[in-house]
Each structure stands twice: as C-alpha cells, then as structure tokens.
Write a structure and sequence with these properties.
It is a single chain. The chain is α/β, with parallel strands linked by helices. It folds into 2 domains: 263 residues, Aldolase class I (TIM Barrel); 65 residues, Non-ribosomal Peptide Synthetase Peptidyl Carrier Protein, Chain A, CATH 1.10.1200. The protein is built from 13 helices and 14 strands. The strands form 4 sheets. The chain has an 8-stranded parallel β-sheet with strand order 5-14-13-12-9-8-7-6. It has a two-stranded antiparallel ribbon with strand order 1-2. A two-stranded antiparallel sheet has the order 3-4. Helix 7 links the parallel strand 12 and strand 13. The longest helix is centred in the last third of the chain and has 19 residues. Keywords: Flavoprotein, FMN, NADP, Nucleotide-binding, Oxidoreductase, RNA-binding, tRNA processing, tRNA-binding. InterPro entries: Aldolase_TIM, DUS-like_FMN-bd, DUS_fam, DusB-like, tRNA-dHydroUridine_Synthase_C, tRNA_hU_synthase_CS. It is an enzyme of class 1 (oxidoreductase). Pfam families: Dus.
Length: 354
C-alpha cells in the first residue's frame, strides 16, 4: 500500500508539512523515505558502506546487474557478478537492480536473488538510456515503447520473487515527443509491482536539462495503491525537502549528487525531521573519507584494479572544490596505491569554490 498521510501531515495550499511518513514497499519499511539510486560503475559495496557510515538512506541499491550475464556465469560455474559483491552479508534493507528483456531470464535471476542472497527488494531497470543497453540489448528505457513486454517481465518477476517486493524504475518516456509515463505507471501497478520510481527526464535527454518534477507529480493520480518515488536533480537537503513539500511523491531517490558526498543522505534526513542540517565535513575529513573508500575498494579488487576503479570516485570527491581540475589531471594517471595516496596528499583540494 502507498504511504498514508499521518496526523502530523496535511496539505496546506498545496504544500505538505514535514516530516513525511516512512515509505512502505510491500512489507519493507523505508525510513527515512530517501533512497540511494542504483548507478552502474559506482554504487558497489564500498560506496554503499560509505553511505551507511554517515546514515540517512532508508534503502540502498546495488549497481544494475545484467540478468542474462548472471545466468551465463551460473551455468558455467563462474563467480557471480562483481556487482553482487557484499550483497549477501550487508545490513538490510537492500535492493538489487536487474535488467534484460526476457521475462523468463529475469524471473530466474530474481528468484536466485531472493532465495540465495535474501535481498529486500528486486528492482527492474526500465530507465537506463545508454546505447549499449537500449539499442544493442533492447532493454532499459528501450522497453518503454513496449508496455506489454514490461507487463510480462514484471508479472513473472513478481510471481518468482513473492513475497519479496518487486519495483520498477522508469523515465518519463523514450523522447520528449513520446512521453508515456502515465500509461506505463498503470502497467507497472497492474503487473503487480510494489513501487514505481520515476526519473524526471526522457531517455533522449540522458542527463541534460532539468528533471521535470511536475510531470513526476502528475503520475501519482495514475497509481491506485503503490508509492511513487521521484528522482532527478536532488543535490541538496533543501531540494529533498522541496520535493516532498511541492510534489505528490511518497519517497525520493538521490543519484549522481551523492557520489562524492555520501553524507548528503544524512543531511537530507535531518532536514526532513526539521533538525538543523549538518555542515559538510571539513575538507580534511572529506579527504579522509575518500581514502577510507579507497581502502575498501583495494581490499576487494586488489592494488592495481582497485586503484584504477577509484580514480573516477576521486574525481567525484573533488568536484566543486578549488583546484579540482588540477587534481583530476594527476589522479587520472595513478596506477598503484602509493601513487594514488601521494597524489591525494599533494593535490587533493582543501578549499571549496568561492
């Protein structure tokens, strides 16, 4: 059931007072109703651990997992995908996002995730706009043009995963000339999904322009019983508060803005409670946070691969700081832990932009 407005809430001239109630996805309680988005190449176990240490996210998610690749690995007795690293042992609730266009394959993987990994939520990616997923694999946001197939994927996954809830993440449509999110929302609910997340851009937009939260909010009237989660451009605690105050959503999902700021969830959660918003960590603390993140990555992937993987995170941590470009130039060349740590010591920006 969708979150119900409690006694502390009301609508006053279209503005909802805070705090919002916890979000319910099936039997999973998401409190606070702030979700960490699944992001390919970024939201691995090390990143999730950094977010967890600061707190504030009611539900975290893995990177998206290719269902067909998972099945191939399983059939060939290979190690399961790196993107499932840490999932079996992490605190709950935790969502795993999967993608493909074959209902039977998706159902098979969903059942494995529930039976073997005991995940809290299985999320379906119907929003990825990347060409390799859309045009080459006819998956992700490509499926927004095929509601019948979406319905069958969701239906079979819901049946295979029960009673674990299945959710879906979509965009507004494939293009600005073909915005069909209202129709898709009804399809998602009718197929049995327990929640819907909507990114407020079309697939054609990628990440250009601004997310359309008015469009996201309009979708709520097309849902009868499941919660609506809004996603797009939430890069501050104040914007999270505004999303709940101005728009008809039951939860919010923070994506790219958190990659170099894992403390953003804690700030947003405090703001929703009406508490003072914690200050950003000091520059030295941010640097130390990044180095702890680096240690976790190297521990899992080894010195060489871990260093290569961490370079993109390091750029995120430096974003918005004076001298970030200079730092990125150097850290992009790091190939060993010693080089990485030396570059961080010498070049990591310790001043914010004016």
């Amino acid at each position: 059931m969708a979150s119900q407005v409690n006694e502390k809430q009301h609508l006053d001239d279209g503005v909802r007072t805070l705090p919002p109630p916890p979000l319910k996805i099936g039997d999973v309680v998401v409190d606070p109703p702030i979700l960490q988005a699944p992001m390919a190449g970024f939201t691995n176990a090390a990143f999730r651990q950094m977010v967890r240490e600061y707190g504030g996210s009611g539900l975290q998610a893995t990177e998206m997992v290719n269902a067909r690749g998972f099945v191939w690995m399983d059939e060939h007795e290979a190690e399961h995908p790196d993107r499932l690293w840490g999932v079996a042992d992490e605190p709950r609730p935790l969502a795993v996002q999967i993608w493909d266009n074959q209902p039977e394959v998706m159902a098979k993987v969903g059942k494995r995730l529930v039976d073997e990994y005991r995940v809290s939520v299985v999320d379906i990616n119907f929003g990825c706009p990347v060409r390799q997923v859309t045009e080459k694999a006819h998956s992700g946001s490509y499926l927004l043009r095929d509601p019948d197939r979406m319905h069958e994927i969701i239906r079979q996954l819901v049946e295979a995963c029960a009673p674990t809830p299945v959710t879906a993440k979509i965009r507004l449509g494939c293009s600005r000339d073909n915005i069909n999110c209202n129709e898709i929302a009804s399809v998602v609910e009718q197929a049995g999904a327990a929640a819907l997340t909507v990114h407020g851009r079309t697939a054609q937009d990628f990440f250009k322009g601004s997310a359309d939260w008015e469009r996201i909010s309009e979708i709520k009237s097309h849902l009868k019983n499941i919660p609506l989660i809004g996603n797009g451009d939430l890069d501050s605690a104040e914007k999270v508060v505004t999303a709940f105050q101005k728009y008809n959503v039951d939860g919010v999902m923070i994506a790219r803005a958190c990659l170099g700021r894992p403390w953003l969830f804690a700030q947003a959660a405090a703001a929703l409670r009406g508490d003072p918003i914690p200050e950003d960590p000091s520059m030295e603390e941010q640097r130390d946070c990044m180095l702890r993140h680096f240690d976790l990555v190297v521990e899992r992937f080894g010195a060489e691969k871990g260093t290569l993987l961490m370079r993109k995170y390091a750029c995120c941590y430096a974003q918005g700081k004076r001298g970030a470009r200079h730092f990125r130039t150097h850290v992009a060349k790091a190939s060993t832990p010693a080089e990485f740590q030396s570059i961080v010591t010498e070049f990591f920006p310790l001043e914010s932009q004016p």
